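Please study the protein below:
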Amino acid sequence: MLGCFRRAFGAASGQRASTETNFFSRRVLHAKRRASGTLCVMTSVDSDVQANIDGYAKRTRRYDATHPDIFNSHEQARLAAAVGRAVDAITSGGSNALDFGCGTGNLTRHMRDLGLTVTCADVSPHFLQIVAERYEAPTIELAGGSTDAVADGAFDLIGVYSVLHHLPDYVASVGRLVSKLKPGGVLFIDHECNHTYWSPDRELAQFRQEMRAGQMQRFWCPDHKRWQRRLSPSHYRARYRRFRNINEEGDVHVYAHDHVDWETVIQVAVEASCELIERTDYLLFRAGGYDEAVWRKWNSRASDMGGVILRRT
């Protein structure tokens, strides 16, 4: 999910193709080198979706443990409050929710806690198995990335948490998600890098500098000490993945030159008959690497992530 924080070399370019019937846009053919060393050619949409499925198939059961930036008390409390505001914005009169790109059910849990009936959708059958076991929730497999199995105008709330950067054409995807809402239904999109993540303002730059200074005081800090990186096996695994263009989680829009643009997301949703209810920027707490005191100091002043609440009119 959280690809914005797994920097990789290379590019993943998305092109809008609104005439496509597939939920994801079909982009130009590209060559992808498999781990075996053979060269295969496939449509980029197929390879992006399959990379997502394959990547999570290997780490489905340990996903929560390997994403402390999501599964920590600060982020969970923030998310619970945000979902609550999204629910309060619903005027369609129902309680049917869709967790789009559900993963292990992080958003599903918060929706259920607020009394919603949740359907879980994902391209990964492994994640759908987990949410079915945990929550006994109905599931929809987005085969090939298509949302044909999702009925139009069926939901009062659609939640999209840390998902847009996985979608080859996230712009077209937003418009299609709006069509799945009832009039008065709410589209909640959250946990994507905002503009300042890629172009830091003074506050975020100062926060990062102060956080790094504290981390440098630790003896073991391979993220900032080159000689320690050379002693870390993960450093060489990362270099190998970059060399082979291996993206472990099927991320697409996670680069400085190609990332989710919030202004475009809002514009497309508004053009699809939505009104903007709330736009939020916040500073993500990355458990395991952040000094909590430093994060608290800057939490109300700096931001690197964003979210929106939109309602279909």
The two ends are 30 Å apart (CA to CA). The CA atoms of residues 95 and 115 lie 7 Å apart. The chain is about 35% helix and 20% strand. The first strand starts at residue 29 and ends at 33.
